[in-house]
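Bug #77: duplicate submission created two jobs. Keeping one. Sequence:
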Amino acid sequence: MIARLLVAIAAALLPLVAQAGAQQYEPLAASVQAALHAAIADRAAPEPQFPSLQEKVDWLTEMSGRLSRRIPDREARLDLLKTVYYEAKRAGLDPQMVLGLIQVESGFKKYSVSSAGARGYMQVMPFWIGLIGSKEHNLFNMRLNLRYGCIILRHYLDMEKGDLYRALGRYNGSLGKPEYPNMVRGAWEKQWGWRR
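Kept job's structure:
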């Protein structure tokens, strides 16, 4: 009985630990590298565009309530949510899926560093700065971290022809192992799923 309780507690705390594996450096074609660099080099995120003002208010209110325990400061929470929404949509990703990925990767800890060296909310490996970014980029900067993470996941989705499980495996450095994609999907559906 106590052993089961300890296993259940450990499983519940698992999302609090940075889950990033070692994203693998893979040489990129010059055209892919240029496209990814252009996507990263864009200016700061403007106010995200929602289908309607009411949907914006509803989504931000709902997601903010769910995130309040992890990020108590309302202004910081809304800034994160607006940036997640903008960067996810910009990369053609579901914002709630990105929230699930952040929950699993860093537990919403801005300064999280994994044992492999991945950084920030989306646990981006530093080699990406040299590959597609600029040397002055700081992966602890919220907007840059979210932009890199979303662009990298989009790249992996394109590589895997839309297969989210394989793309998430590449993102985490655990391709072929179902645990990580299943954790992201579980967090996405259980914690961040939203239907208007």
